[in-house]
């Protein structure tokens, strides 16, 4: 009787169970099953999906089949300048004074701008004859400042006149060409990309100091390195360029 009543009470829910049901499942704490290798693969995939920085450009093959740096691959004027002048040795006083002057005028501007104005510069500055330019007076300065064909920067015009006078004084030490070429390094860079081309060097820094000591202005180490490149003192043609090693100063390799 008691058993039947107990059963009825259990069925109605008024009598608690005295033990847990044997069929109740044991709950386990869930943990991540991601393996380290999978995590690394996921991280690598996220990194690969990020925008990539532009890669440096190598030499560009033109329609003529010749390899050139990007700056000399599009503009016909720059292409011709690169193919025929840039990097060829210049060893005379007038030629180096002209390039020294044009490099100074180029500061802050593109070389294409200077190249397009080069004939006008030559006419305005007496073909860069140091003896004539050193004698320029206020009337000449005013004339140059009013000449729309050139870069009308008073500081650079005055620098050119001052550098002409310094070039004349330097003749007592052997001359401008001898001084500049005395800073030719023992080795030259061999860049494969534009990013590998240096913009300064120990030699360009030393040349800059030597010229400043002698009264030259607008002759910073970066400007002097550009001068050394343009006049064959160093060969920074890309190794794949058709001009590499053609100056007669440096071998191709």
TrEMBL record:
It comes from the Bacteria. Zn(2+) binds at residue 237. Residues 37-53 have a biased composition (Basic residues). Residues 1-10 have a biased composition (Basic and acidic residues). GO terms for biological process: base-excision repair. The keyword Glycosyltransferase does not apply. It comes from Paraburkholderia steynii. The keyword Mitochondrion does not apply. The lineage of its organism: Bacteria, Pseudomonadati, Pseudomonadota, Betaproteobacteria, Burkholderiales. One of its GO terms (molecular function) is metal ion binding. This is DNA-3-methyladenine glycosylase I. Residues 24-36 have a biased composition (Low complexity). Pfam families: Adenine_glyco (PF03352). Keywords: Metal-binding, Zinc. Residues 1-56 are annotated as: Disordered.
């Amino acid at each position: 009787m008691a058993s039947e009543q107990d059963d009825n009470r259990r069925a109605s829910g008024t009598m608690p169970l005295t033990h847990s049901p044997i069929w109740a499942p044991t709950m386990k704490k869930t943990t991540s099953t991601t393996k380290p290798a999978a995590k690394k693969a996921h991280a690598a995939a996220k990194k690969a999906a990020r925008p990539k920085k532009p890669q440096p450009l190598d030499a560009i093959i033109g329609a003529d089949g010749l390899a050139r740096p990007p700056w000399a691959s599009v503009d016909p004027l720059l292409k011709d300048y690169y193919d025929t002048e840039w990097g060829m040795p210049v060893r005379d006083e007038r030629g180096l004074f002209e390039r020294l002057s044009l490099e100074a005028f180029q500061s802050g501007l593109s070389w294409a701008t200077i190249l397009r104005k080069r004939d006008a510069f030559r006419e305005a500055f007496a073909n860069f004859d140091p003896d004539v330019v050193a004698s320029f007076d206020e009337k000449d300065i005013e004339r140059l400042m009013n000449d729309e064909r050139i870069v009308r920067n008073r500081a650079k015009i005055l620098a050119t006149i001052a550098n002409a006078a310094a070039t004349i004084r330097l003749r007592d030490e052997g001359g401008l060409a001898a001084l500049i070429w005395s800073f030719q390094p023992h080795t030259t860079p061999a860049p494969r990309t534009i990013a590998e081309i240096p913009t300064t060097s120990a030699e360009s820094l030393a040349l800059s100091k030597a010229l400043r000591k002698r009264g030259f202005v607008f002759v910073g180490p970066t400007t002097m390195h550009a001068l050394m490149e343009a006049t064959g003192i160093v060969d920074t043609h890309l190794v794949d360029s058709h001009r590499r090693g053609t100056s007669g100063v440096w071998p191709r390799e």
